[in-house]
Structures are given as C-alpha cells and as structure tokens.
Specification:
By secondary structure, the protein is mainly alpha-helical. The radius of gyration is 24 Å and the shape is globular. It has a 4-stranded mixed β-sheet, sandwiched between helices. The longest helix is centred in the N-terminal third of the chain and has 33 residues. Helix 4 runs antiparallel to helix 5 and helix 5 runs antiparallel to helix 6. It binds zinc ion.
C-alpha cells in the first residue's frame, strides 16, 4: 500500500521536474534567440556582434545538450529503480560475493562503474564536439581517458575506505548510526578540503608559484589592505584542458592558497586581476565560504536523519523496485544508501532556486566588497572580458536565470557595480 503510494509520488516528482526543466530550457532558448541579432546597448561598445552571437549559439547548444542528458539520466534512473535494474544488479553481485561487507562494497562499486560507463559517451561528446566547436576544448582524447582513469582510481582509493566506515557504522553503532555517519562525513569533507589543493589537484594540473613580480606585489598589497593571510599565489595550467578562465581559492585555515588559471592571467590586465581577486577575497572576508560549509553540514545532518528513518521502512525499497531482503532478517544498508543518493535529487530539485538566490546575494556582496577595496571599473572590464571569453550569454531568460544561476546576470551585476563606484 505505502509502497505503491511512494512509487506514485516518485514518478510524479520525476514528471514535474521534467516539465519544469523543459519549460525553463525552452524559455531560455527563445529568449537568447530573440536577442541574438544585436548586442545589448550597454555592451555595444565593448563586445563585438560576432562574440555576442557566438555566446548565443553556445548557450543554446549547451541548453539542448542539457535536455538530452536530462532525458538519458531520467531513463537510467527509472531503469535502475522501477524497472528493476538495481534488483538485478544486487542479485548478481550477491551470487558472486555472498552476504556481508564484500557484497555491500561490491554493489556500490558495480553501480558506480556502470553509471560512469553510461555517462561516458555524452561526456565525450560534450568535450570533443560541443566544446571543440566553440574553440574551448584543449584536451586530447588521451588526456580525457587518462583523467577518467585517474579519477576512478582516486575514487576507489579514497572512496572505498570511507564507504566501508559508513557501512560499518550503519551496521554496528545502533539506532543513532546516522549521527555518527554524519560526524564521519563532516570530518571527511574537512579532510578533503585540506587534501584537495595539496594532494589531489596536483595529480591533474601543474601549479607553479606566481612569478610576475609586479603583479605579485600588487596582489600582496591588496591582501594586506583587507587583512588576508595566504600560503601562496599559484598559477594553474588550466589551458591544458580548456580555454575557459577562472580564479579560485582553496584550502582553509593557514593552508589557504590562491589559484589563477593561466588563461585568466593572459587575458586580464593587472588592475583587472586585482579587482577579480578582491571579489574572491570578499567571499572569504564576508564569511560566505564558512556559511556555505555550515549550511552543507546542517543539511547533510537532516538528510542522514531522514535516511535513518527510511532505512527501516520496507516501502522505501519496494516502492523503488527493490526487495531488500537477501537473507531472512538481514537489512541491506548499501542498497539504502544507493537508493537514497539516487532519488534525493528528484525530491530536492524544486528547492534549487533557494540555493541560487542565496548564492546571488553573496555575489552582490562580494562585488560591493571588491568595489570598496579595488576599482569597480576594473571589475566591470574584467567581467566583460570573462563573459566574452567564456561565451556566456548577456541576455539570459530572467526566469531561467532566477532558477539556476549562481551568479546574477552580467547587466545587473554591472549596474550594481556602477552604482557602487558612483
Ligand atoms: Zn563570486
């Protein structure tokens, strides 16, 4: 009874998500097409028509590919759950391993490998067709597959022991297992924040200390003005993979480092780089990063408590096409984890705009911070160059943007910056 009700609820949310996403995508495509023929007046002197039209075409192509990917992933989700894919996989793994931890790890590993293989053709197409067509791809197929292999090895080396820990807690730590699992998850996240910049990222990219002395002095001046201590300024060879440019922070505590993509340094003037960095420092100084981490921890506590309840409900499994009982009286913790991770996004998708909203608020605050500690005009000209270089559309559909975008539309951001400068 509950099981059928849950299946119906699940399918209803899938359909609702599909409708909303197709509707937003069609609005976005229509809006971008309508404004394709002319550069918006406020950018007319800064961005050539050809670049504006490239951005329009790139946006539309990406939106369309996003829909293909959505259809594929929805089909895969239904095949795994209601059509019995996970049940089939579970039985076959069980036949190989017998009951116990080996079965549980085997099930999670087999699922991860299979879904990775299903995603592979579209990932490949995206890189070597879409990104290639618009001049963004700098990867060779060799590098693409080397990255994939390295990523899979890393996931196995880091992920399997952690999953083993969580499964052990689920089995042995009693009714409050979800709380202990949450503590383990939070510690794991913090550990990754330390390991990522120093151990993991260098496996994929080369990081060299920033050598441009004039620029370095300029940046150190800015950091002193705003009171920011860092373990160093690095340049990353982002051009190895993509022409898209960026700058970011990583690490925390005394381990913070600032990383510039080489593609960004090539394109921006020193004053513009300083303004972009002032924006990033704003995120740090205004505690956006710590707020985001706290928010993430609070949410995951809630979700794990929910899983603590769902794990013991038979309808949670049967409603998603799985019979959890491999042996009489034994639960199936790995299956509970897997189902939860698979279906959670279906039920949380409609809350996405709340995250986008809070993120856009932070972007405005960081821009205001940059205007205070560097020149707003420099940030504006840097933004215009970055929009042009990344072929980001200047004319997104307002509703599409409100739903998805972590950053406010360029024109709105620049209007705010001009107001701050005045
Ligand atoms: Zn930002």
């Amino acid at each position: 009874m509950y099981s059928l009700a849950f299946s119906i609820l699940f399918v209803s949310f899938i359909i609702l998500t599909l409708i909303v996403r197709f509707w937003l995508a069609s609005r976005q495509i229509r809006h971008v097409l309508t404004h394709r023929s002319a550069v918006p007046a406020e950018f007319a002197e800064k961005i050539p028509l050809a670049a504006h039209q490239k951005a329009a075409d790139y946006t539309i192509a990406r939106t369309k590919l996003g829909l293909v990917s959505l259809l594929l992933s929805t089909g895969v989700l239904i095949a795994f759950t209601l059509l019995g894919g996970l049940q089939w996989l579970s039985l076959h793994v069980f036949q190989l391993t017998g009951p116990g931890m080996l079965y549980q790890l085997g099930l999670l590993a087999a699922f991860t490998v299979i879904s990775g293989l299903i995603d592979l053709p579209l990932d490949y197409y995206k890189q070597f067709n879409l990104e290639q067509r618009f001049g963004f791809n700098k990867m060779t197929p060799g590098l693409f597959f080397a990255d994939m292999l390295k990523g899979a090895l890393l996931a196995a080396v880091i992920g399997l022991p952690f999953v083993w820990l969580v499964l052990t807690l689920m089995e042995k730590s009693g009714a409050l297992w979800w709380f202990y699992a949450w503590a383990a998850w939070s510690a794991f996240q913090l550990l990754m924040m330390v390991l990522y910049p120093t151990v993991i990222a260098p496996l994929f990219n080369k990081f060299t200390p920033l050598e441009d002395m004039a620029l370095k002095q300029r940046i150190e001046g800015l950091m002193e003005r705003v009171g920011f201590a860092s373990k160093g300024l690095f340049v990353m060879d982002g051009s190895k993979r993509s022409a898209h440019g960026n700058a970011y922070f990583s690490g925390f505590g005394a381990n913070k480092r600032i990383v510039f993509f080489d593609t960004l340094l090539e394109r921006l003037q020193p004053a513009e780089i300083e303004a972009v960095l002032a924006h990033e420092l704003g995120h740090f100084k205004l505690k956006h990063i710590i707020k985001r981490i706290v928010m993430m921890f609070a949410l995951s506590l809630g979700f794990l408590a929910l899983l603590g309840y769902l794990k013991n409900q038979l309808w949670f499994y049967t409603g998603l096409g799985v019979d959890p009982l491999l042996l009489p009286g034994q639960g199936n913790d790995a299956m509970a984890l897997l189902l939860f991770m698979l279906v959670l996004p279906v039920f949380t998708f409609l809350f996405g705009p709340l995250t986008s909203l809070s993120s856009r608020k932070h972007e405005f605050e960081a821009d205001a911070f940059a205007a205070q500690h560097a020149q707003a005009a420099d940030l504006v000209s840097a933004l215009v160059k970055m929009y042009e270089d990344n072929a980001s559309t200047l004319t997104p559909d307002p509703l599409h943007s409100a739903f998805y975008d972590s950053h406010p539309p360029a024109s709105v951001r620049i209007r705010h910056l001009h107001a701050a400068a005045a």
